[in-house]
Design goal:
This protein is mainly alpha-helical. 69% of the residues lie in helices and 0% in strands. The protein has 21 helices and no strands. It has helices at 2-14, 33-49, 52-63, 69-91, 93-97, 101-104, 106-109, 113-143, 151-167, 170-195, 216-226, 245-272, 278-286, 288-295, 301-312, 314-328, 334-338, 341-358, 363-392, 413-429, 451-474. Helix 9 (151-167) crosses helix 16 (314-328). The longest helix is centred in the first third of the chain and has 31 residues, at 113-143. The chain is globular.
């Protein structure tokens, strides 16, 4: 079996397709910046996030948290910009290191503790992919004549398309994202034109005035953006070492902020119109995807075609987490490394497809229970990465060639302890549907979600002294 996989991988190389797994991309293997460029960075992030899953996330603001259009828009825009900052920063490490994001984690967390981060990241990647599949399945079912296509069939269709693209790796992935944004932008602008007049921009927010602006929804917008940090460097490892970090960062911020803001605002508008338009409320009761399709209803058959385009546009959002999961599985151990990326890629698709089929009737619950929880660990992890670079590596830098030599990597004791301390802070200050921490309970009637900020802060406070002790005792 190994012989046949090796033969298949060699054939991929012949056609200039990616057979590489977690191995570092050396300088002589990188692409010319002229072939990719900084505009590709903007387009990549814009294409990824101009998707229906972020529209459905926008629906939660008025539908679940009863926010006004203005309050929800403020939470969405500023939350997504804030969450995009770590993702854009981590993206700059791809060209510099030539290593995948979770390999870079080894230089802070060490060999063994970093595997915990890899597992958490895999949960995020596969969880988001599951949500994408469910939304796409709902929409394809909603546009089919008399609901002749089930959600199950729609889920399988987008999963198979995603698998086909990600199997062939980096070049095809970037090529697809280079053009996928255009039809999405066109049909979503059409949706603004058909549904926009029905948006309710006047109804005020409901709830405690002390927490309405800083409502839990703000954390959802933050989480949606920051969770891309776990794979951000993966998408730029073939950029040359001399690529400008500032330009990659700025281009990433532009692409992330514009796409998230546009999609979230569109979702907020659709959600706000449900109170005054019963047909929208009926569609939402069927599924979130059905509400998006209902927004195109004035266009008749052409509107259904637009719904299909939006549904298939979720493939662009599915590709990055699917691609990264195929790499991250290999980081779990020596035996996992021997399994080709293509096979792990297939395993990831199977896992999230099965989960999507099982949870296709509970999308709102998945969003509210899964999405916010996943953002906490990313914020804590980013605090450790940032301090390791700015405090302890500022002068001595990184030896990126030692990515697979555990004797040259930190032990990770300091990082693990700081990570756990950060989690304690997040738990005490989180406010979710199913749990409100004792500190979060002190703010307003229903609590305020401060878990991301407190988790980041606590981890950042304890890591420097612990890391200093680790270096003094063990020298690495």
């Amino acid at each position: 079996m190994r012989f046949y996989w090796s033969k298949f991988e060699r054939q991929l190389v012949v056609y200039n397709l990616e057979a590489r797994g977690i191995q570092r991309v050396e300088e002589d293997e990188k692409d010319d910046i002229k072939d990719l460029g900084y505009m590709q960075v903007i387009i990549l992030w814009f294409s990824i996030n101009l998707a229906a899953n972020n529209i459905t996330l926008g629906l939660l603001a008025p539908a679940v948290y009863y926010l006004s259009f203005l309050d929800a828009a403020m939470c969405a825009v500023f939350g997504s910009i804030l969450g995009s900052l770590p993702t854009a920063y981590i993206a700059t490490w791809g060209p510099t290191s030539g290593n995948r994001t979770m390999i870079i984690t080894r230089y802070t967390m060490g060999w063994w503790p970093s595997k915990l981060i890899v597992i958490l990241n895999l949960i995020v990647l596969l969880g988001y992919s599951m949500i994408d599949c469910v939304v796409a399945g709902q929409m394809l079912s909603a546009v089919s004549p008399h609901d002749s296509m089930s959600v199950v069939v729609g889920i399988i269709i987008v999963a198979v398309i995603t698998w086909a693209i990600t199997t062939f790796g980096y070049q095809i992935f970037h090529y697809y994202e280079r053009y996928a944004w255009l039809p999405q932008l066109v049909v979503l602008c059409i949706l603004v034109g058909t549904a926009g007049p029905k948006f309710d921009t006047n109804t005020p927010s409901q709830g405690d005035s002390r927490t309405v602006i800083g409502n839990r929804y703000d954390s959802y917008a933050w989480d949606a953006a920051i969770t891309y940090g776990g794979g951000a460097a993966d998408y730029f490892v073939y950029y040359p070492v001399n690529t400008s970090a500032w330009k990659v960062f700025t281009s990433s911020m532009i692409g992330l902020s514009l796409s998230f803001s546009f999609a979230l605002l569109l979702g907020i508008g659709l959600g706000s119109g449900m109170a005054t338009h019963p047909d929208w409320a009926t569609a939402y009761d069927t599924s979130q995807g059905a509400l998006i399709v209902q927004g195109f209803s004035p266009l008749g058959g052409f509107g259904k075609f637009c719904g299909v385009v939006v549904a298939l546009g979720l493939v662009a959002n599915l590709i990055p987490p699917t691609y990264s999961s195929g790499v991250d599985f290999q980081i779990l151990g020596r035996y996992a490394t021997k399994v080709p990326r293509v096979l792990w890629n297939t395993v990831g698709v199977i896992i999230y497809t099965v989960c999507a089929l099982a949870g296709r009737n509970s999308l709102s619950e998945i969003f509210t229970n899964f999405l916010a929880l996943m953002g906490y660990w990313v914020a804590i992890w980013f605090a450790l990465l940032l301090e390791e670079q700015l405090i302890f590596r500022r002068k001595r830098g990184y030896n990126w060639a030692m990515w697979d030599d555990r004797s040259k990597l930190p032990l990770g004791i300091a990082a693990l302890l700081a990570f756990l301390v950060g989690w304690v802070g997040a738990i005490l200050c989180m406010a979710q549907v199913w749990y409100i921490g004792p500190i979060a309970q002190q703010v307003g009637q229903y609590g305020a979600d401060m878990g991301n900020y407190v988790g980041f802060s606590w981890a950042a406070l304890v890591y420097p002294p612990l890391r200093y002790l680790e270096l003094r005792r063990f020298g690495r």
